[in-house]
Design the sequence.
């Protein structure tokens, strides 16, 4: 099953809310480079630029092992939140 | 299996390359709002700001059905590509 399928299966039951989920994985060749923490704040800023979200409706999870750094951002968007003009 | 597990399983065999994969899913309540195309260019710009990548090493896939818009960005980072100072 492709990753897309997993997103669909996890769909939040009541569709009254919109939901934005971002998964970022960085397969590192060297231990030093860690893009995930560098990109995290900027991706959050890009989202906030376009959608009105409450900070407490944004969940951020980071995970890191020997080779892979992972970032998961889960944003619940209130139904009446309009897209901000870019 | 969590989505994180899927990322690990798909690890590219030779670790000579670094790889950055971003999946974005927008569960829409209304048909109109389509965050994915709005966020796509800005997320690509955030990545390019921090990592030297060749445009032809960046694959972007978009997928959309009744409720969910999906974006997958797959970036192959040359081993010697240094992180740009933010």
Sequence:
């Amino acid at each position: 099953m492709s990753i897309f399928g997993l997103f669909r299966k996890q769909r939040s039951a009541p569709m009254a809310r919109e939901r934005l989920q971002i998964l970022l994985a960085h397969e590192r060749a060297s231990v030093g480079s860690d893009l995930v923490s560098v990109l995290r704040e900027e991706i959050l800023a890009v989202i906030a630029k376009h959608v009105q979200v409450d900070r407490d409706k944004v969940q951020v999870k980071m995970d890191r092992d020997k080779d892979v750094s992972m970032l998961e951002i889960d944003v619940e968007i209130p139904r009446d939140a309009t897209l901000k003009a870019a």
Q: What stands out?
A: The longest helix of chain B spans residues 35-50. The interface with chain A takes residues 3-4, 6-8, 11-12, 15-30, 33, 35, 38-39, 42-43, 46-47, 49-51, 63, 65, 67-68, 70, 72, 79, 83, 86 of chain B (CB under 8 Å). The two ends of chain B are 35 Å apart (CA to CA). The domain at 16-77 of chain B is CATH 3.30.1070.10 (Cell Cycle; Chain A).
